[in-house]
Amino acid sequence: MRKMLYVILLVGFFAILSSTMSKSPTLPLYAQSLELTRGEIGLIASVSTITGIFMNFISGLLSDIYGRRKLLNISGFVFFSAPLLYFLVNNAITLALVRAYYGVATAIFVPVSLALISDLYPEKKGTFMGILSSSTLVGRALAPLLAGSLVYFVGFWIVFLLCSSFGLIVFVLTFTFPDTGKELEKFEFSFSSSLLILGLLDAAVYMAYQSIETFLPLFYFFENKAWLSGLILTIEISIMAVVKPYAGYLSDKIGRVKPVIFGISMLSLAMFLFALSSSLILVIFGAILFSLGASISEASTKPLATEISKLRGTALGFLESIKDVGQALGPIVVGFLGFRFGFAFVGVFAVLALSIFLLNFELRKKR
Question: Identical fold at 2-174 and 193-366?
Fold first, then answer.
């Protein structure tokens, strides 16, 4: 069982390393080389997230019917094959189709791998889900530096081949996974308000995350200092990678609700700091506070979803779909409302989601 955990962590690392290398900073640079407009580049960048909104839930449901391993096999094949399709791209439409196809890989992998962890390690699922998340964050943090360097010194082709090679490792290793799941004999899903509320919490986390990632470099503190905004974002990811396993362990020991309250409260405060920031110190403090709050909250919402529903794959897939909606809306909200009102809106949304969560929790206890 310990060896299998190491294999799952290795697959998570290579899967997210591969997919992130293909888009950051490769995607906008490659699209620019094809002479696409900024509008086209923006739409193409959102395609994989839109794919996730629909595919996360479907893949989780299918893993409850056909088993985790089959779905992860499919995910591994997409990780392997999608980067090679970049060589066939010659316009905006074909690039968008490749990104949509690539989005299927991550949309399957994230909820189904978390469901596999829940199947194999029910007593320590919070801890091990946190460790898996950390392994993917390490891949996410390394990818831009590796891909950017290779594009600069060699060219796009080496990045696509390397992404495909990492995908091949993922594809091969998925065949070693135990075939858990199969709780369903047919397609069925009963709507759960509790899962929707959990999804709103994760949506708040990723609405904040994507807003920070998108607009942090545009704060006037970072004018002509792109390296500084990049450093802060790297520190943010690093904090999340370190904290998540400990946060998951904490939720296994003291329960899921208290960490959610603490984490979302920290996240909300961070958003208000961004909204009212008048100095670089406040922005840095807000980024650190967000990283801690997001890590603590998310380390509890995922295992809690598997305890609310016996269909663990479906529950986690549903959560990921709602999360992706929040991730897609975050930059839109801040972009239209402006930094002050946009970040404040995200903070208020997080507070409202937490309030609804606590009200629902009290009602469930009474029942």
Answer: yes
Interatomic CA distance for residues 271 and 248, integer angstroms: 23
Helix 226-254 × helix 280-308 angle, to 10°: 40
CATH 3.40.50.10350 applies to domain 2-174: no
Angle of helix 92-120 relative to helix 38-66, nearest 10 degrees, comes to 30
- With H, G, I as helix, E, B as strand and everything else as coil, classify residue 173: helix
Spatial separation of the C-alpha atoms in residues 275 and 203, rounded to whole Å: 19
- Please count the other Cβ atoms lying within 10 Å of the Cβ belonging to residue 65: 19
- At 341, the amino acid letter reads F
pLDDT at residue 29, rounded to an integer: 86
For residue 268, which of 354, 335, 327 has the smallest C-alpha distance?
A: 354
355-364 residue pLDDT tens: 999 999 888 7
**Sequence spans of domains, the chain:** 2-174, 193-366
Closest CA to 24 of 145, 137, 161: 145
Highest mean pLDDT among 55-59, 169-173, 330-334: 169-173
Whether the ω angle into residue 25 lies within 30 degrees of 0, i.e. cis, is yes
For tokens 């831009």, the residue is: 144
pTM for this predicted structure:
0.86
- The burial class, CB within 10 Å (0-12 / 13-18 / 19+), for 336 is exposed
CATH class assigned to 193-366: mainly alpha
What does each C-alpha distance from 251 to 50, 222, 262 come to in angstroms? 31, 37, 11
